């Protein structure tokens, strides 16, 4: 079984239709996040799939996507109204049923 790694998926998309599409793609892989920043526990293959799907959605001349590998063993620090992440026992990838 492939090991999951914590990836932060961030994007800045200029057109509302592409923004909604990027949000839909990101939420397929996310376990938490806000607005245009999502915490994703993904395998190597899932990260490639996330990257590929986002590349199909954005306009590379106007939009930006950043995927950052994070250390999933580190303690999470939240400030303000932020909520600490609560991970489920399993991660479902794909559209909800």
Classified by CATH, the class is Alpha Beta
The tally of strands reads: 4
What integer is the average pLDDT? 81
**H and E string:** EHEEHE
Low-confidence stretches are 89-97
CATH architecture: 2-Layer Sandwich
Oligomer: single chain
Which fold name is given in CATH as the topology? Alpha-Beta Plaits
Number of separate helices = 2
Helix content: 25-40%
Distance between the first and last residues' Cα: 25 Å
Summing up helix and strand content along with how strands pair, one would put the structural category as alpha+beta
Task: Report on the biggest sheet.
Answer: 4 strands, antiparallel
Shape: globular
Q: What radius of gyration results from the CA coordinates?
A: 14 Å
Beta-sheet strand percentage? 15-25%
Q: Strand order, main sheet: write it out.
A: 2-3-1-4
Number of domains: 1
């Amino acid at each position: 079984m492939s090991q999951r790694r914590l990836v932060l998926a961030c994007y800045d998309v200029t057109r509302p239709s592409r923004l909604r599409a990027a949000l839909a793609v990101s939420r397929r892989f996310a376990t938490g996040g806000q607005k245009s920043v999502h915490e994703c526990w993904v395998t190597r293959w899932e990260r490639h799939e996330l990257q590929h799907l986002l590349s199909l959605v954005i306009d590379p001349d106007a939009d930006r996507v950043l995927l950052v590998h994070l250390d999933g063993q580190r303690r999470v620090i939240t400030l303000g109204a932020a909520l600490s992440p609560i991970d489920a026992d399993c991660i479902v990838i794909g559209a909800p049923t």
